[in-house]
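[09:14] KT: can someone run the structure on this one? pasting the chain below
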Amino acid sequence: MQERWRAGKLAASWFVLLAVALLWLGPYAWMVLTSLRTLPEIVAAPAWPLPKSIQFEAYREVLHAIPVGRYFLNTVAMALGIAILQILLALPAGYALAKLHFTGKKVAFALVLACLLIPAQVTFVPVFTMLGSVGLVNTMGALVLPFGVSALGTFLVRQALLSVPDEMIEAARLDGASELRIIYGLLAPMLRPTLASLFLFSFVFHYNDYFWPLVMTTDDEVRTLPLAVALLREQGTGVRWHIVMAGNVILSLPVLALFAAVQRQILRAVTARA
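[09:31] RB: done, structure tokens below
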């Protein structure tokens, strides 16, 4: 009787996990299948996801309509620059809030937490005006610099450093290590799971960002891939859903590959905090 109850409990767990997986993967599978159909098929049966025959014409049209390679490099350069800058600056900021003693430390940490509540859309007008006054609009600097400092990254690094014994830092100081050597040479390798999580969150968020590149770019020089995919919807007459879906598949593939590469580090960061 007990074994039967355990088997039923296991089957229910698998059923719930399968339902959650279908809920998450269903829209992506629909997007991929739609990109492999023709427009007459979609118009004739929009609710039927399976193609009569696999067609790659939508991908050829995407590659022909927009310079995917240049937009992709712009997007990766922007997201990579922001993620690296955030990690480099979050390490000393989190170290100061976790391990140093100075007047106003609690106020500084409260300000960091307050910054988590302010969306970028609230401050984009003064930031746009400031960048425009120094001639940085429509440059890569305008896309990267406003996000170089991350309140979330500072918070994550600070919380991770609280678990590092102070004796280890004192021993490094007695050996003659400078503060920068302690931060980037000693502590950074110990925080690898946290930094990997921060890198992934930052990279994915800014890789998919639509709003900031929309207001900061005026031509194709530094335009990003999400903007270009959105423009696919406006070309021609009517919405060509198979082309839009093909563009979104191309857009999402690098992010999925990145997640597959660092998922182990993310799980280690989450389980370490748990």
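[09:33] KT: thanks! The two ends are 34 Å apart (CA to CA).
[09:34] RB: yep, looked fine to me
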